[in-house]
Amino acid sequence: MTDGPLAAAGFALYALPYFIPRFVARHRDPDTVSTIKLGAALVVYPVWMDGLVTAALALAGTPGCHQHMLTLLP
Questions:
Q1: pLDDT digits (tens, 9 = 90+) for 44-69
Q2: Handedness of CA 52, 18, 28, 32 (dihedral sign)
Q3: Pick from 44, 55, 57, 56: which is nearest to 15 by CA?
């Protein structure tokens, strides 16, 4: 059971971009909810990842940035 801290860190880092498209699509026409979520996600996730990489570069320097980029691989 060593995945607990990794799961908590993953939730903390990626919860906001996960919920933003849902928030944007609230109170919309039910026929367009999926399209709005997809459009919002196509904007939110790259911006969020850019912010995380920039923060890693600023806080840890180049090696920290490269280490974070490796965590993005599937």
A1: 988 898 888 788 777 776 666 666 66
A2: positive
A3: 44
